[in-house]
């Protein structure tokens, strides 16, 4: 029995890109840090919230790269001249990626009490009916 992939299914034409997106997401290396929530805030909007204790706005970068929302964080080393008896709060860098569907746009990003909120909205495309003329061959 041959396994059909999404891009090879006879009724799904042009979906090879979706299959590549799924593969890229699986390989993105997103580990458990930083923790995050994704919530639906209305019928056409979402909010991603990342827990970023110890980070400030200047430590963060938010970009959209090839339909992928990428959040990067890098803290400076502020331990110079300090003696830690215990260091359980690590200053580490991270990269967290989210694949965006067609029509999903990134709105505002706000930082509040150690939580980074990124608002997304989904636009609904207009239904287009196109009539194709049949010509004599």
Automatic annotation (TrEMBL):
Pfam families linked: HSP20
Domain SHSP: 27-137
PROSITE patterns the UniProt entry points to: SHSP (PS01031)
UniProt-listed InterPro entries: A-crystallin/Hsp20_dom, ACD_IbpA/B, HSP20-like_chaperone
Protein's UniProt name: HSP20 family molecular chaperone IbpA
Keyword annotations: Stress response
Transmembrane segments annotated in the record for this chain: none
Family: Belongs to the small heat shock protein (HSP20) family.
CDD domains, alphabetized: ACD_IbpA-B_like
Domain of life of the native organism: Bacteria
